[in-house]
Structures are given as structure tokens and as C-alpha cells.
């Protein structure tokens, strides 16, 4: 498999974690977001949205959208399952994942931040305020859900699930943009526990610079 991504892309980071957890071999193709390579004609032929990641799974098949890629990986390589077996538990894990993937990440990604800063005239300070506001809203809700549960090493007990796969890159982003994460103690304890696992360590942006 070939993963087209960028080392700091949190959506690509999710896929790297899942590939590592499942111990799958893959190569990486760097699409430099700072050089706008995601908008090139050649990359848009793979992913018409001009977003990373995309994954090449055989000679003529590409998948896009990290949630779809993660679900495909989990169904195709079920030996290390990332979703619980029970459908209610599965829905709970997905609900968590979608809070990150649908409600936090998309309004804090590069193109949106650029639009807020440049097209809407908010500049760097406005961009930072936007990001802190929306990440804060998202993390607060996630922390409340964790606090209401009985605890556990990971988001849903003692098994790593897709919930952790979505959480860790989002926390990385928060830290990168100076969001005060000390107000989310359960989130941070899970973040630290995940980062002790080899699959998460190997997926970290610093280890995946081109
Ligand atoms: N929902 C998509 C989101 C992908 C996405 O937003 N990727 C970001 C990097 S994390 C990107 O390619 N940004 C480029 C840009 O904003 O121009 C997924 O999960 O794959």
C-alpha cells in the first residue's frame, strides 16, 4: 500500500496509526501541503478534493477520506480490531470519532484557517482565536464524556479503538497550536498512554518527516 499524506496532517496521522496497529507494510508518498502540492493536477487526479490522505491499495485502486480508509482497513484486516463487536458499542465509538472528524477537524484545517485569516481579513490573531474557540468547544465535550465514564487506559476501556486513533492526532494539533490542554486531564492521560504504544510512536509527525 502507498499512503499519500503529509507528516503533520492529522487525517494522515490517523491512517498511519491504524496501519501500524494492524502491522501492515506501507510506503509513504509525501504531498507537501505548505507547497500546495495537494492542489496539483496530478494529485487531484487521485483525490479531486485536493486533501490528504489518499491510499493506493492496489495497482488501480485509490481510497480517499480517512474515515472511509480506516473502516476499510478494519474490515479488510480484522485480526487487530479497532471497533468493538457489539453494534451499540460500535455506534458509541463512531459517535466519538465523528465528533473529531466531522465537528472539530474540518473547521480547523489548513484551507479553512487560511480563508479565515486571508479572505475574511481576520489575520493571524483571528485565525488563532477561531482555532482555539472551535477546538476548545470540541475538547470540552470530549472530556465531559470521558469524565462520565468509569475510566480506563484508553477512550473505551483497556482496548485501543478508533476513538484513540482519532483523538491522538487531534490532541497533537491542539498542542501544536498552543491550546491549553491542561484543562482536559482525561484526554491528556489517554494521549500519554497511547503515545507509549509503538504503533502510535512510529506514526508521530516528527518520525514521518519526508
Ligand atoms: N475528511 C478528510 C479531511 C482531510 C483533510 O482536511 N486533510 C487536510 C490535512 S489534515 C488537508 O489535506 N488539507 C489541505 C488544505 O487544507 O489545503 C479526511 O479525513 O480525509
Throw out a few tags for this protein.
210 residues, binds glutathione, 4-stranded mixed sheet, alpha+beta, Glutaredoxin, single chain, Glutathione S-transferase Yfyf (Class Pi), Chain A, domain 2, globular, 9 helices, 2 domains
Structure description:
The protein is of the alpha+beta class and 210 residues long. The chain folds into two domains: 2-80 and 201-208, Glutaredoxin (3-Layer(aba) Sandwich), CATH 3.40.30; 87-198, Glutathione S-transferase Yfyf (Class Pi), Chain A, domain 2. It has helices at 10-21, 41-46, 66-76, 87-104, 110-119, 123-148, 162-176, 185-194, 198-203, and strands at 2-5, 27-30, 54-58, 61-64. A four-stranded mixed β-sheet has the order 2-1-3-4, with helices on one face. A hairpin with a 2-residue loop joins strand 3 (54-58) and strand 4. The radius of gyration is 17 Å and the shape is globular. The protein binds glutathione (GSH).
Summing up helix and strand content along with how strands pair, one would put the structural category as alpha+beta
- By DSSP (H or I, 4+ residues per run), the number of helices equals 9
- Tell me the Rg in angstroms: 17 Å
Sheet of most strands: 4 strands, mixed
Query: What is the CATH third-level topology name of the largest domain?
Result: Glutathione S-transferase Yfyf (Class Pi), Chain A, domain 2
Q: Mean pLDDT, nearest integer?
A: 97
Q: Percent of residues in beta strands?
A: 5-15%
Level-1 CATH class name of the largest domain? Mainly Alpha
Number of domain modules: 2
First-residue to last-residue Cα separation: 17 Å
Would you count the extended β strands for me?
4
Shape label: globular
What is the spatial order of strands in the main beta sheet? 2-1-3-4
Low-confidence parts lasting 5 or more residues at pLDDT below 50?
none
List the ligand species: glutathione
CATH architecture of the largest domain: Up-down Bundle
Amino acid at each position: 500500500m502507498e499512503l499519500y499524506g503529509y507528516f503533520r496532517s492529522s487525517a494522515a496521522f490517523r491512517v498511519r496509526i491504524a496501519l501500524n496497529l494492524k502491522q501492515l507494510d506501507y510506503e509513504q508518498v509525501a504531498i507537501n501541503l505548505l507547497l500546495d502540492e495537494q492542489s496539483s493536477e496530478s494529485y487531484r487526479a487521485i483525490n479531486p478534493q485536493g486533501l490528504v490522505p489518499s491510499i493506493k491499495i492496489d495497482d488501480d485502486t485509490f481510497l480517499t477520506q480517512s474515515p472511509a480508509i480506516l473502516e476499510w482497513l478494519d474490515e479488510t484486516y480484522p485480526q487487530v480490531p479497532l471497533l468493538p463487536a457489539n453494534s451499540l458499542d460500535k455506534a458509541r465509538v463512531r459517535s466519538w470519532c465523528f465528533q473529531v472528524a466531522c465537528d472539530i477537524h474540518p473547521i480547523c484545517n489548513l484551507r479553512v484557517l487560511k480563508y479565515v485569516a486571508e479572505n475574511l481579513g481576520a489575520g493571524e490573531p483571528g485565525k488563532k482565536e477561531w482555532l482555539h474557540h472551535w477546538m476548545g468547544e470540541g475538547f470540552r465535550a470530549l472530556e465531559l464524556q470521558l469524565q462520565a465514564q468509569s475510566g480506563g487506559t484508553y477512550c473505551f476501556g483497556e482496548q485501543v479503538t478508533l476513538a484513540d486513533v482519532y483523538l491522538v492526532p487531534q490532541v497533537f494539533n491542539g498542542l501544536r497550536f498552543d491550546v491549553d490542554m491542561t484543562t482536559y486531564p482525561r484526554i491528556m492521560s489517554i494521549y500519554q498512554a497511547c503515545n507509549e504504544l509503538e504503533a502510535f510512536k512510529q506514526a508521530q509527525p516528527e518520525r514521518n518527516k519526508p
